[in-house]
Amino acid sequence: MPDDTNGAIPVHAKERLKGLRSSLHSSGVFTSDFSVNEFLLVRKAGFEPIGLCVGTCVYHVGVQYGSWSKNQEMDVLSKAMYHARELAMSRMRAEAGAMGADGIVGVKLTIKRLEWDEHLLEFIAIGTGVVHGEGHKGFRAHDGGPFTSDLSGQDFWSLLHAGYRPVEMVMGSCVYHVAHRGALASLARAGQNVELENFTSAMYEAREIAVERMQFEAAAAKAEGVVGVDIHEGSHGWQSHVIEFFAIGTAVLPLDQEIAPEKIADPIMVLSIND
């Protein structure tokens, strides 16, 4: 387990990182969760995989009750879910920094409920640390640390080929209580085809809050835009009518200079190897 909450790396992780290579020609081995096609295209984009970067956080999510008949954000739960993911991400990024990576590609951010306590969730961030083959540091994030991206190896290649680079994986969370329908209202509309405006409004607003927060993160990272946006929904075992909307994507910026086309293989040719 980490020594504290500030991204400290456990002893066994430090030992594992010592065995990784820092470039194609150095000693050691690389580890990666890339598919074969992803591995080939990341290499064609001028990057070398170094090793898996992992961050985890076991978090006790508190309790918050919403008004039975009111649409409202559960701000205590929203903050808890965001903070836990942020801890996992920062620890993953700390591992990437320790191995000398310029960035992390293919980040997967997952949540699982622990069996021994229904209030405990484990947040896991994992991706492959990569380093630019020519030592170019211009690919790093705005704070000088490794960039993070949930793009696949294929999308990473395409992004660079189009003249853009990933800056930061950005996210926004909103846990929302959707108001219940009263008994009379339910009976009055029984058997009818009719929109439930209250529910529609709640779901719409909750998604918008999550996306807006993700967009705010992208602006703070000085990004031009966000690609690959996905919105996940889940209740995580909370009481009825409480749902989380989680928006995530990769913030991007234009490259100072496009990678020369002759240095990048045709992706169709590469992908056909294993098709």
TrEMBL record:
Signal peptide: none annotated. This is Uncharacterized conserved protein YbjQ, UPF0145 family. SUPFAM superfamilies: YbjQ-like. It holds the Pfam family YbjQ_1. Gene3D superfamilies: Hypothetical protein apc22750. Chain B (3.30.110.70). Belongs to the UPF0145 family.
